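Posted in: Protein Modeling Q&A

I'm a second-year student putting together a small comparison for a lab meeting, and my supervisor asked me to include a predicted structure for OsmC family protein. I've never done this before, so apologies if this is the wrong subforum. The sequence is pasted below exactly as I got it from our records. If anyone can share the structure token output, I'd also love a short note on what stands out.
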Amino acid sequence: MADKITTQWKGNMVFESDNPRWPSIMMDASKDFGGTGSGMAPKAMMLSSLAGCSGLDVVSVLGKMKVDIDDFKMIVEGELTDEHPKYYHTVSVEYHFYGDDLNESKIKKAVDLSVEKYCGVMEMFRQFAKVKTSIHYHNN
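Accepted answer (user: helix_wrangler)
Welcome! Here is the predicted structure, written out as tokens:
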């Protein structure tokens, strides 16, 4: 199965890119690099993709386990190399779960399944970066 996207230059440093399930997303360079900052940063979008991929896995597995949570967020940080081409050499993914009487063992299992088995974006990142994960439980 292949994904295909089309990315169109819109002038200056702005590009518009479609997606198999979404009309488009705008990308732009920061003002420091001649852009206007009117779109998402391409490298940071990779971090969003990592969070989205893993988050979808975790929510799906927790649903199958019938685990209730009130809220869930991920904080992903990437450290870039100093030399060009700059890429993320270290990435940390923090999983934050909120709720009453959180089932920590099942939540950990859901995260572990995503990290170790299901998340293809996580596996892609592991090809070029050290990936660290942590789970944080916030019981109401």
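A couple of things worth pointing out for your meeting: The mean pLDDT is 96. The first strand starts at residue 7 and ends at 11.
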